[in-house]
Amino acid sequence: MLKPVPMRKIRVVGLRRQLEEVVGLLHNLGIVQFTRCEDARLCGEKPLDIYPVISEQLIRMRAIENALEPRPVKKKQPLLSIDELLNECAKITIEKRIGQIHDRLDAIKSETKELSDAASVLERLGGLNIDLSIAKSNEACFFLGRIANEKIKGLEDGIKAVTDRFLFKSQKISNLESICIIVADKTYKEYITSLLQKTGFSEMALPPLPGKPKEVLSIIRGRIAQLEKEQQELNSEIGRLSDEYYSKVVGLREMLEIYAERANAPTNFLRTENVFLFEAWLPSAKYQEVAGALKKKFGEQIIIQPIETHEEPPTMLHNPPILSPFEFLVEFISTPKGNEIDPTLLFALTFPIFYGMMLGDFGYGIASLILALILMNKFKNTMLEPVAKVWAYASIPTMFFGIIYDEFFGFRHYQILGFHLYEGIPRTENINLLLVLTILIGIVHLTLGFILGAINKLREKEWLHAAAKLGWIAVEFSGILLVITAMFHMLPDSVMIPAALLGIIGLIPIMKTEGITGLIEIPSLASNILSYARILAVGVASVVVAELINELLMPNPSQGILMLVMIPLYLSLHLFNIVLGMFESLVQGARLNYVEFFSKFYEGGGIKFNPFKYTKKITV
Amino acid sequence: MVELSIGAGMALVGAGIAIAGGAIGTGLAQSAIGGAIIGVLAEKPEEAGKMLIWLVIPETLVIFGFVVAMLATLKVG
User: Does the beta carbon of B56 lie under 8 angstroms from any beta carbon of chain A?
Assistant: First the structure.
């Protein structure tokens, strides 16, 4: 658990005529990750010949899948051979019909929209008994639009001033506006247009049908109903096609994806005329399995060699499922390198303690557990799910520390029970003790970090760097001894000289490896230790707010009707404090690990092991 | 009302200044770092984890303020 799975690199040489089978076998095993090979003496391998055909069918199946309505998919469809698969794909010929249906549905949609727009204009013209075919007349000019009610009179007078051969009809559509129609001799078109511009007339599109508004409206409504019926029929046809084909198409799509991955894998390989070569990473423990499977199938016609390399292997973390949310938090910062310590377990042990010490209230622990469970349920398979799980785990120590701190929604246990049960350690009254305790936690945590750093360096055979990590422990303890002797007089003064000597000895390997920057790092070590005081700081802030809410806003029957306001206010302020505390404790607890602890040993920057396999959801 | 000596009063004012100074310092540092981080994340959203580390580093300043304030307050108390 404390280190990633050991990896081994292999080189495989085989006959090109067996390439497809080799790739298929490795794809089924799903435990090797190809690396790109480069060698100037050899050519790069091409995708398998079948690749363009598969990829064309894959595009087809994806398009059909998208065009159909999702249906429950029949799981466990057996993986067909390529020929069978292509045959099955050829049998699916519904894309032309689906294309026609979708085109027709689009056309119906746009025609319906046009007609509905026209209908909404015509509905407003209902009271105007005028034949709209007049708009097409060659001798008359025609205007239809909206105008402010107070401008109607002026407009009509303006037209009257030049001619009395015109038709002017208006109908109020609101307190502010009317719809009006103006028909006049064509010679007055320009004059009327300029008049309309001055009145702020807003022109409306005219329905393209002849007849009076009411007649045209009924024709349009009939057409819309007809289109809706056609749309329903087409949709039910899509439904029928989906019932029949969806499950099959999804299965074929997945199989095509499997074959497409296989067909494209050789682009990482090298080749001569008859032979291919590839290199790949795999977990060391799986070497025999892979080599055995290849040898069993291809016998002496394939060569598998382990390669000694100084390249960094890809990282495959191996933690029990319960630790997976913490693994997510570690990888959020950076994936560990393949050969360094995996801090997931340590993170999972320390984080909930820090979190619990910060939130540290029994009631808040229960509330944060409930909130975390709600979030887990609501945000399944998103980034928030692992975070919610971490909250859920960490709420257990929160309740535990809540009992120790004697904090229950900001109350002491005897304030709720009415009698004294035990003597807790309330944070607001024991700041001195808890400050020392948090600093001690910091010292232990950082020392552990330095020890892990030394182990990492020893494994890399960098002896001096390993000594420097241990040197930092000496400097750390020397500093602590000096501070508690000189500042707090807790030890006799005679301790100071050996303490100083310890620090100087520790500094030797540090100066040798890090030079003068090592000296500059000493204050940052002090700041790292003091940083653990945040466990107390965040906690005290939260508990003081909780106590204030209880003191100032606690609902009480003497408040009478005001209780109706006070109860929701009181509860929502506590909820706000809980959410704030959950978030703050998460960030600060993670930070103590990321910044203070990880900086002592963790390098990160690894690349996650990504084996050549397909996650089969449907196919077996 | 508890009577405090001038020295004790000044120690408490000092505690306030310690917290305030730490908080202002953290705020100034985080505002500059935060702006730069938004720039980085616009280009490389996958760096969010590393950027978070840079963002939280100055928070230690306010913790120093807290420790100093606590020491001062406890001495008075």
Answer: yes
Looking at CA atoms only, how far is residue A283 from chain B in angstroms?
27
Is the pTM here over 0.80, yes or no?
no
ipTM of the shown complex: 0.74
Structural domain including B33 reads 11-72
**For residue A207, what pLDDT is reported?**
64
Q: Tell me the pairing of strands A270-271 and A202-203.
A: unpaired
Chain A interface residues (partner B, CB cutoff 8 A): 332-334, 431-432, 435, 527, 530-531, 533-534, 536-537, 587-588, 591, 594-595
Instruction: For the beta carbon of residue A311, count every other beta carbon within 10 angstroms.
Output: 11
Domain total of chain B: 1
Question: Which residues pair with residue A271 across a beta bridge?
Answer: A43, A276
How far is residue A192's CA from residue A143's CA, in Å, rounded to a whole number? 9
pLDDT single digits (tens) A52-96: 999 999 999 999 999 899 888 877 788 888 889 899 898 888 888
Q: Do B67 and A591 touch (CB under 8 A)?
A: no
B54 — contact with chain A (CB < 8 Å)?
no
> What distances in angstroms separate CA A139 from CA A135, A142, A203, one per listed residue?
10, 10, 20
Q: What tens digit of pLDDT does each residue of A480-531 get?
A: 999 888 887 888 888 889 989 999 999 889 888 888 888 888 888 998 998 9
- A594 → chain B, closest CA residue: B53
Smallest CA–CA distance from B71 into chain A, residue = A432
The CATH number covering residue B45 comes to 1.20.20.10
Nearest-neighbour CA in chain B from A326: distance (Å): 14
Domains and CATH numbers, chain A: 7-91+239-307 (no CATH), 130-211 (3.30.70.2750), 341-600 (no CATH)
Please check whether residue B1 lies inside any domain of the structure.
Answer: no
Q: Is the dihedral angle over the CA atoms A435, A436, A438, A442 positive or is it negative?
A: positive
